[in-house]
């Protein structure tokens, strides 16, 4: 339903009752659950080295598997749209890059385990509920219920002692700010 609305009208708002924070968290959980980041381990250092040049970044990104490239293009296009409304949502390209870089680009030893652990916790609790003959819940229901029980102060990934990868943040910020120049030969991603 939500996806169909956005395919029909790229300016459509979220349907009533859907929290944008939940949608964002689901995207982050999905990206963190991937066995390898969208940018791949192999291209990590190349991307960090290429971040000062649009042409160099475009050439490095062409080495990505097609599915990774397409997914990264769509996610950064979405982040660009969010950043363009930063006066309303208070999320500029730097803030978005700080939030999303850990799940888009990481080294082998820096996997974003927080999101995977949280998602596994949700799934484990959901399966317990279904074996208890309780009513079944959608992912939205699980997030809203479990999110209220979690201690938010300990759930902030940047507060867990993991070093912040400012190079990855810079790369993701560049991908957001220069999205159209990096991903398309035309100067604008067309939303259909």
Automatic annotation (TrEMBL):
Domain of life of the native organism: Eukaryota
- InterPro entries given in the database record: Rho_GTPase_activation_prot (IPR008936), RhoGAP_dom (IPR000198)
Q: Which GO terms describe its biological process?
A: signal transduction
What are the Rho-GAP domain coordinates in residue numbering?
1-130
Q: What is this protein called?
A: Rho-GAP domain-containing protein
